[in-house]
Write a structure and sequence with these properties.
This protein is α/β, with parallel strands linked by helices and 417 residues long. Helices cover 52% and strands 13% of the residues. The chain folds into three domains: 119 residues, Response regulator (Rossmann fold, 3-Layer(aba) Sandwich); 120 residues, Response regulator (Rossmann fold, 3-Layer(aba) Sandwich), CATH 3.40.50.2300; 122 residues, no CATH class. Helix 1 links the parallel strand 1 and strand 2. Helix 2 runs parallel beside helix 3 and helix 11 runs parallel beside helix 14. It comes from mine drainage metagenome.
C-alpha cells in the first residue's frame, strides 16, 4: 500500500518515510499541497500523512481536496502539527480529522498502522445473494469470485433471513422477482427489523432489466442501491469498495471518538504539571517542553533564553527545518528577536555536531568540560540578538547575519586574547 506524505520539511519527510517503511508500506513524498494533488491524480495512494502547515495551503484543505479527488481519492488522512495552539484550534474546527502532535512518533505510527489494517480488510465480509434462478446466481457468483469476494447464494427469503441471523455479511443482494412474485421489495423491511451480528447492512436490489419504475419502487421500499444483473466486474468492484469504505470509515470514527474521550479524561492529569512548569519557568520553558525538546536542544534554550527579549530560537542554516519553522512563526507576528550562537572555529553558527560535543575539532576548542553545560556557558558570551521584521527576505537576512557573526566572532577572539 502507498501512503502519501505531504511535508515541506525534508528532515520530517525522512522521518515519516522511516515510520511508514517500518510498518511495511511505501511512502510517496510531496513538498506542497499542489504537488500532492498532482501526484494523487497519477499515483493511487491509500492514505496520507499531511503537515498542518504547508507553503501553499493548510493541511486540512489539502486533506479535503485529496478526499474529493475524482481519481484515486485518498482515505482517512492523518494531519500532524508542531504548534500546540494551532493543533487545539484545528481539532475543534475539524473534528472529523485526526490531528496529532508531530513529536508523538508512537501515536503517528499507531494511527498509520490502524489505517493500513482497515484498508487491508477490503474486500470485506461475504455477500449474501437471494435469487431463485440457479443460472443467474452462478453468473453473479463467478464475477464475485474473480474479485476475490465470497458470495453466499440462497434460493428463498426464509433461508436468507436465517443465514443473516447466524453469520455476518457485508451487504445483501436481493433479486426483485423471487418465485414469480415481487417479494424482493417486501423483504427489505424484514431485513431492517432484524438485529444482525454485523450490525446494519446495505440492502441492494438487483434486476435483469433497468426499468425506471423498478428503480423507483426499490428506493421507496428502503433499498440502499439498485444494480443491474448485467453490471460489469469493474462497476461491481467500484460499488463494493464504496460500501466497504463507508462501513470502515464508520468504524474508524468510533475508534477516534473513543481515543479522544480517553485523552479528555487524561487531560486533567497533565494540565497541573504544565501549569507548574509555566509558573516556574515562564512561557518559553513551557513551550519547548510541550514541543518535546530535550537534551542538547533544551540546554541550548536554557542558556540563550536569558539574553533574548522574547524566546530563544536556535538558528542553524544547514537545517532547512529551522528555516521553515521561522517562516511560519514570522507570518503575522511582530518583529521577533532571535539568539544566534557563534562557532569559535569557523564563521557562522554552531552546527548540531558542535553543540553536542561530537565534532572532531571539539577537543581543540578549549579546556572547558566536554559537556553541553560547560560548552554552552562559553558560547553564551558570544550570543547575538537579531530582530527579523515581518515580510523580510529570510535568505538575505541569514546571509547578512552570517557576515555580521563572522565580524563579531573576530572581534570576540581579539578581545579574549
Amino acid at each position: 500500500m502507498k501512503i502519501l506524505v505531504v511535508e515541506g520539511s525534508r528532515l520530517y519527510q525522512l522521518n515519516w518515510e522511516k515510520i511508514i517503511r517500518a510498518i511495511g508500506q511505501e511512502p510517496v513524498l510531496a513538498a506542497s499541497g499542489q504537488e500532492a494533488l498532482a501526484l494523487a491524480r497519477s499515483v493511487p495512494c491509500d492514505s496520507a500523512l499531511i503537515a498542518y502547515t504547508l507553503s501553499d495551503m493548510d493541511g486540512v484543505t489539502c486533506a479535503e481536496k485529496l478526499q474529493q479527488s475524482p481519481l484515486n481519492a485518498v482515505h482517512w488522512p492523518l494531519i500532524v502539527t508542531s504548534n500546540p495552539d494551532s493543533w487545539g484550534l484545528a481539532l475543534m474546527q475539524h473534528p472529523r480529522y485526526e490531528i496529532v502532535d508531530r513529536q508523538d512518533r508512537h501515536r503517528i505510527s499507531t494511527a498509520l498502522a490502524e489505517r493500513v489494517g482497515i484498508l487491508r480488510s477490503l474486500p470485506p465480509l461475504p455477500v449474501l445473494y437471494i435469487d431463485d434462478s440457479q443460472v443467474a446466481a452462478q453468473h453473479m457468483k463467478n464475477r464475485f469470485e474473480r474479485l476475490g469476494i465470497t458470495l453466499h447464494h440462497f434460493f428463498t427469503p426464509g433461508d436468507a433471513l436465517l443465514a443473516l441471523q447466524k453469520s455476518a455479511y457485508s451487504l445483501v443482494l436481493c433479486d426483485i422477482f423471487i418465485e414469480d412474485t415481487q417479494t424482493g421489495y417486501a423483504l427489505i423491511p424484514k431485513i431492517r427489523a432484524q438485529t444482525l451480528p454485523s450490525g446494519p447492512v446495505p440492502v441492494i436490489m438487483v434486476s435483469g432489466g433497468n426499468d425506471d419504475d423498478q428503480r423507483r419502487r426499490a428506493f421507496m421500499a428502503g433499498a440502499d442501491d439498485f444494480w443491474s444483473k448485467s453490471a460489469s466486474i469493474e462497476e461491481i468492484q467500484a460499488r463494493l469498495q464504496r460500501y466497504a469504505l463507508a462501513r470502515n470509515s464508520h468504524n474508524l470514527i468510533q475508534r477516534l471518538e473513543t481515543r479522544l474521550l480517553s485523552e479528555r479524561l487524561l487531560e486533567p492529569q497533565t494540565r497541573l504539571p504544565n501549569a507548574r512548569a509555566f509558573r516556574d519557568y515562564g512561557y518559553w520553558r513551557f513551550r519547548v517542553g510541550f514541543e518535546g525538546y530535550s537534551g542538547i536542544q533544551l540546554a541550548l534554550f536554557e542558556v540563550l533564553n536569558p539574553t533574548a527579549e522574547d524566546e530563544a530560537v536556535w538558528l542553524d542554516l544547514s537545517n532547512p527545518e529551522f528555516v521553515t519553522r521561522i517562516r511560519h512563526w514570522q507570518a503575522g507576528l511582530p518583529p521577533r528577536t532571535f539568539c544566534a550562537c557563534l562557532s569559535p572555529r569557523r564563521f557562522g553558527l554552531l552546527s548540531p555536531a558542535e553543540l553536542s560535543g561530537t565534532h572532531p575539532l571539539h577537543a581543540a576548542w578549549d579546556d572547558l568540560p566536554r559537556t553541553p553545560s560547560g560548552s554552552f556557558a562559553h558560547w553564551a558570551l558570544r550570543s547575538v540578538q537579531v530582530a527579523v521584521p515581518p515580510g523580510s527576505d529570510f535568505e538575505a537576512q541569514f546571509t547578512s547575519l552570517e557576515r555580521e557573526l563572522g565580524a563579531i566572532e573576530e572581534e570576540a577572539f581579539r578581545l579574549l586574547k
